[in-house]
Design goal:
The protein has twelve helices and eleven strands. The chain is an alpha/beta fold. The strands form three sheets. Strands 1-9-8-5-4-2-3 form a seven-stranded mixed β-sheet, sandwiched between helices. The protein has a two-stranded antiparallel sheet with strand order 6-7. A two-stranded antiparallel ribbon has the order 10-11. β4, α6 and β5 form a beta-alpha-beta unit. Bound molecules: pyridoxal-5'-phosphate.
């Protein structure tokens, strides 16, 4: 192979997106700066209304990050000390962190091997574990890992039968659908993140909460701005400062104009990967009725092969990432919390998962290179 064949490629290409948006994006940012409404400028309202239209959720409340969105959702539902929230252990730390931050207790459950998403039967066991520990089970938090919605039918049934709320951590899945409905409408409360590398990302931190309930939305808005009442200097509850910046809203409004096209490009890239890699590594399975926002394209390698595969790909200029190397129940910060006795799938996925470059501007040449290097590396047993 010539050296140019091995030139490094990006894992996520935000530059290509920026070039595509070009002057419109520059102008939108400059306008936000020149207008001077840095906090809660008109772009924030416009964005919330467009996000509601897009998702189908009656109310969108934007905020400062995906982590804050989870904290706000938990607090709006009145979840706190003595309460348990069931969280999959194979996720990004923020899912469980938000539960602990509001004083409630995360109880960890396992995930399904083919989708990486919460296993409803393990979640049911976690509810029993919470009760045995003397906690009040209040909610279950499916996480739409790598962009695919969790099984909201199974989780909805479970939650209904046990009287739990569903808080969807959709930080990675905004834009995806489940049986024709968009993320944002699949749970009582849904949260997302606009961290730059997420499928819909801004140029800093940002997040949003979606719900169909007006009263919940009012509470979320109040919590977002220091527990405000009808005006800013009336404080009716202890809140926080978690507003989305006007500049970030301006960036997101521009990115929304190309979001559908970007999602379909990611979908095409995922299909090309599946065609090239199925049978060689475990390719991600889409549940019938689900579409994915493909936040990541994560394959399952043969056991014990990840280190050498990562090294071979790195030598060939192909970047990879490991999401997630240590499940939360084994992290120092979370070891003290309860969990279901069996978390075998999560433990196994933490050993064998590998994410390869995935973004809307992945060209076929780069993708062929990723696939052929991966095939070669895996075959070199
Ligand atoms: C990114 C992410 C979050 C947190 O979002 P931030 O905007 O970075 O705070 C929460 N949960 C999951 C699953 C995530 O991937």
């Amino acid at each position: 192979m010539s050296s140019s064949d091995r030139a490094p490629m990006p894992f996520i290409d935000l530059d290509a997106q920026r070039r595509r948006l070009g002057d419109d994006l520059n102008k939108a940012i400059l306008a936000a700066v020149e207008e001077g409404s840095y906090i809660l400028g008109p772009q924030v309202k416009a964005l919330e209304s467009q996000l509601s239209d897009y998702s189908g959720a009656a109310h969108t409340v934007t905020c400062a990050s995906g982590t804050d969105a989870l904290v706000l959702a938990l607090r709006a539902l009145g979840i706190g000390p003595g309460d348990a929230v069931v969280v999959p252990t194979f996720t990004f730390a923020a899912s469980a962190e938000a539960v602990a931050l509001v004083g409630a207790t995360p109880v960890f459950c396992d995930v399904l091997e083919d989708t990486f998403n919460i296993d409803a039967s393990s979640a049911r066991e976690a509810v029993a574990v919470a009760e045995q520990a003397g906690l009040r089970p209040r909610a279950v938090m499916p996480v739409d890992l790598f962009g695919q919605p969790a099984d909201y039918d199974a989780i909805g049934d479970l939650a209904e039968s046990l009287g739990l709320d569903v808080i969807a951590d959709a930080a990675q899945s905004f834009g995806a659908t489940w049986n024709g409905r968009r993320v944002g409408t699949l749970a009582r409360v849904t949260t997302t993140s606009f961290f730059p590398a997420k499928p819909l990302g801004c140029y800093g931190d940002g997040g949003a909460v979606f719900t169909d309930e007006g009263e919940l939305a009012d509470r979320l808005r109040s919590l977002c701005v220091h527990g405000k009442g009808t005006h800013k200097y009336e404080n009716v509850r202890i809140g926080m400062n978690s507003r989305l910046d006007t500049i970030q809203a301006a960036v997101l409004l521009q990115k929304l104009t190309i979001f559908d096209d970007e999602l379909s490009r990611r979908d095409e890239a995922a299909s090309r990967y599946a065609k090239a890699l199925d049978g060689i590594v475990g390719v991600p399975a889409l549940t019938a009725g689900a579409t994915s926002a493909w936040a990541q394209y994560t394959v399952r390698l043969p056991a014990g092969r990840r280190d050498d595969v990562v090294a071979a790909l790195a030598a060939a200029g192909v970047p990879t990432a490991v999401y997630y190397p240590v499940p939360l129940h084994r992290q120092a910060a979370y070891r003290g919390y309860s969990a279901t006795p069996r978390l075998d799938v999560s433990n196994h996925l933490a050993e064998i998962s590998l994410s390869v470059p995935m973004h809307s501007y992945l060209n076929a040449d780069h993708q062929d290179r990723v696939a052929s290097e991966l095939v070669e590396a895996v075959g070199r047993a």
